[in-house]
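Amino Acid Chain and Its Fold in Token Form
===========================================
What this section holds: a protein sequence and its matching fold, both as plain text.
Structure line: whole-number tokens from a learned vocabulary of local backbone shapes, matched to residues.
Purpose: to set a sequence beside its fold so the mapping can be learned.
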Amino acid sequence: MKKIAFIVLALSTLVACKKNDTDMVVKSGTPFTIKVNQTATLESDGLKITLLEITEDSRCPTTAECIWAGRIVAEFKVEKDGDSQIKTLSDNPSGDPTLSDQFEAFGHLVKLVEATPQVESSPIAQGDYVFKIEVE
């Protein structure tokens, strides 16, 4: 009976410690890609960055000619030592003082490098967006 209890305890510990498939460890100063609902943890100090959602995508489709390039805006959750902040990144913040292509959180600068895919003719699903960012 003790052996069975030990095996059950060991297996439940392994399951509890299993890392989420969407989590990754990244290095400061090295650009990385992140998708919606993925979390990146900074190797040096445990800063966690999660891409929560794309809140706006008004970019001009590649097949059209537009008078304004449009923009993409994404919301991120940044966590460290039990504290969290919600931040946004945009590829084209011009004209909106509340937007930027970078933000500061917990002593780190987070910069947007690239947002993909480009808009074609149909809407892009949240799960298909990929943001390339860098944390300094």
